[in-house]
């Protein structure tokens, strides 16, 4: 909604939102060569992203539906479930959070509501794609895009629905590699979505081709020189096997200002947990001893510190006169033995 414009008195989903995290993310996008966000799906990973110095956190759709529900990325999880997960992530970190909004979960009214619900959850940016509903992961065969008029309406509605002008709308096109699209459509849709007022265009790529990434950026910048692009350094590809794999810096120089690895957190966690669970199944208590060797002295050693338990105890002692004595005279974290 344009600044200063009075909302329709019957627009009941509208709320005044101060999206200061979106402003922070915009500043980073404007000032840095690129902004990177690791893909994650739960609150602790968001906190770890902050602890390790990342610019932002990305709530990946595939990571969320697989990590939280055990599903494939086929739009089985609905908007309210996705927004609730985003809210938990936002509350766990000071980083700006970018969230997957799939197709907007239906028609124009669904898209508008989805944008606003994510804003209310504190999300700095959302990405919406031009696939049919229900959609699928961009790297699962069978995807199909909606027609141009429907797509233009979807993104125009998303831009118009914003309750804070700083909220960032990312338009993803899946035209290249879809059942009913091609390379030229990929480019034309990027131009069309930019003209609809989105902040960033994300051209989803079907493979890790250097040539495609370069050509897309150079071609679209001929007509839209200031357009910011997003790049999915996808977990579906084997980047380490590429002879000349793209680097983040190269992508940033091409104009891909927002870069992310969709399932990095999920793959990192699943690999480590699988190996440790296997060790546990085979070696009983020895696996716990091995794990302790890994994490003692590490920033993640204490689950009490990761959860800021000391702050909760401070609040207890502030408002409960008996809490301080109770904590000091008992065993445990913050108590006599301090573990």
From TrEMBL:
<dbReference type="InterPro" id="IPR015813">
    <property type="entry name" value="Pyrv/PenolPyrv_kinase-like_dom"/>
</dbReference>
<dbReference type="InterPro" id="IPR040442">
    <property type="entry name" value="Pyrv_kinase-like_dom_sf"/>
</dbReference>
<protein>
    <submittedName>
        <fullName>Isocitrate lyase</fullName>
        <ecNumber>4.1.3.1</ecNumber>
    </submittedName>
</protein>
<dbReference type="GO" id="GO:0004451">
    <property type="term" value="F:isocitrate lyase activity"/>
</dbReference>
<dbReference type="Pfam" id="PF13714">
    <property type="entry name" value="PEP_mutase"/>
</dbReference>
<feature type="region of interest" description="Disordered">
    <location>
        <begin position="320"/>
        <end position="339"/>
    </location>
</feature>
<keyword id="KW-0456">Lyase</keyword>
<dbReference type="InterPro" id="IPR039556">
    <property type="entry name" value="ICL/PEPM"/>
</dbReference>
